Amino acid sequence: MLAVDRLAPETRQGSPLEPLTRDGLVFGCDYNPEQWDRAVWDEDMRLMRQAGVSLVAVNIFGWSWINPAPGVWSFDELDEVMDLAHAHGIRVNLGTATASPAPWVTTRHPEILPVAEDGTRRFPGGRQAYCPSSPVFRAYAAEVSRRVVERYADHPALAMWHVSNELGCHNSLCYCDASAAAFRGWLEARYGSIAALNTAWGTSFWSQRYGAWDEILPPMTALSLRNPAQLLDFQRFSSDQQLELYRAEAEAIRRHSTAPVTTNFMVTAHIRTLDYWSWAGEMDVIANDHYLDRRLADPTAELSFAADLTRGLAGGTPWLLMETSTGAVNWQPHNLAKGEGELLRNVVSHVARGADGICFFQWRASAQGAEKFHSALLPHAGTDTAQWRTVLEVGETLRRLQPVAGSQVHSDAALLFDWESWWSLENEGRPSEDVRYLDQVHAAHAALTGSGVSVDVVSAHDELTGYRLVVVPALHLVRDEDAARIARFVEDGGTAVITFASGIVDEDDRVRLGGYPGAFRDLLGIVSEEFAPLGPGQTVTLDDGGTASVWAERLRVTDAEVDARFLDGPAAGLPARTRRAVGEGSAWYLATLPSAADYRALLSRAAQDAGIPTTPVPLGVDVIRRVSADRAFLFVINHTTDTVEIAARGRDAISGEAIAGPVRVAGGAVRIIEEAS
């Protein structure tokens, strides 16, 4: 199968970010002037210009600032901030102020407060203290956003609109009466009849059959395991409710303004409640918030995956990192400072994977409030600090990288990612709690990138034309049409690598009978008769010398080659890895989780099988290329302490130094090479 550029750079339409990248990649921040005395605003603007800040997000949590009491509107201070930004040549990403209601709103209407899974009401005092389905909240939010849009639609500082903030971060799942009513309406629209719902949910189990819509409740905490199909539908419904909030404000904005409209996604390891594939088409700019998660074994690898997934949501076009941190955050058990060079490596990692802008939370570190120990561009200690000097370096780097703007990453390999599979795989009553969806996705992504293979992260519903290799990790929930699309991809000459826990259930969370892996059984030429998950910390050995963990299953081949067998464990002697020739392509199956080194070796084999050149890179070193119609940029990010050499020719994009051979990249450093044509 010939590889083609799915969206050739010279044929793609311009990005809405283009007006902001003419003098450099976007360098931005959240700015909360309402937290500070007016006397510091001028200094803030002066220092922003010194750092190279070109975009500020303002009025994100401004509800009580501009609407402090019922019927009272006060825009004078926001007017001044908008005018100051314009006078200093700084564009504004203007919030609709609806991220959290003012205290007077919940005092007047306590019924809008969200209800948790256990039936207890959550009170104000934090943020997002509202039910996303509440018609009362929606009416107030519509009024606030309308007032903001009408006032500032024509302001010369306006660059884009920022709807709410991190929708669903805290209140994605609400179980109140308003949510219950909305859930019933959503179900009726989805199924049309109670009989169809009973079939989809399998309500003959445990006497759950419903006779009327009003018998249905959200899946609140129960004495036993709950109905998995009901849980799945509630997760779908909840994502849709948050999207409805976004749509309502976006539609109101577009009636008065032509500026781009977006909100900040949370493509990160600890947020799983929103199906962003269904959201992406609603955004004029794809924007993401990402912070290093120190609770993970490899936070840097998770950053790389999140950036690739964000690029996938953007359809391969440039995107905006709306929030990240200069150093420590305030919400993890151990909020660690970034090490020497780590901030620049993080920034360049996002840019390498398609970001045309990097914005930080926030400009000035707060002196009060829940985030007072969250790092910022301007730290508590002021400008005579190493952190401020690093901020200046970041600003200068983004300025010098202006030629990168608009270029894109080209990949011959794709990794399928699906929020519904995440939900379904990790709902209650599963075969092993050690099988966590993101763990499997991250392992596959790390194996690909560690083999020197650039990878796009795409939806399970996407067309796969133009890719040579598709990796399918733990795609638990699979629709018939998606399974058929993957089969056609292989028949047409592609290589697919499908892992355990894939193809097990349909869209109703109903097990596909006849043997696992269900939807992929015929494509792979195998039948798995029984799951045999491994115990905590247990490993098994394969007959090719490899080791594996987490999972095994009792598998037999019907029309496939056995590439490796289990030597020990609960599936000893049975196939652990298979390969089947299909049409012009081939389909692999992994019945266990290989060690990291073995996984890299396997996906390198699969890539070569697919005709993709592999250039293994040292562990801890990222090598990514962005390409435009007339130039290419090679990004080398060295997360190790050792100096590495990478073949390159061209010029250093930061220093202008000519590169005529291998480029040396010191431990902890980054190099960006504009390659010779």
TrEMBL record:
Q: Quote the InterPro entries the UniProt record gives.
A: Beta_galactosidase_C, Beta_galactosidase_Trimer, Class_I_gatase-like, GH, Glyco_hydro_42, Glyco_hydro_42_N, Glyco_hydro_b
Any Pfam family the entry gives: Glyco_hydro_42
Q: Where is the Beta-galactosidase trimerisation domain?
A: 412-612
SUPFAM superfamilies hit by this protein: (Trans)glycosidases (SSF51445), Class I glutamine amidotransferase-like (SSF52317)
Please cite one Gene Ontology biological process associated with this protein.
galactose metabolic process
Q: Can you state which reaction this protein catalyses? A: Hydrolysis of terminal non-reducing beta-D-galactose residues in beta-D-galactosides
Q: Where is the Beta-galactosidase C-terminal domain?
A: 620-675
Q: Which GO terms describe its molecular function?
A: beta-galactosidase activity; metal ion binding
Q: Which PANTHER family match?
A: BETA-GALACTOSIDASE GANA
Q: What is this protein called?
A: Beta-galactosidase
Per the UniProt entry, what species is this protein from, by scientific name? Microbacterium testaceum (strain StLB037)
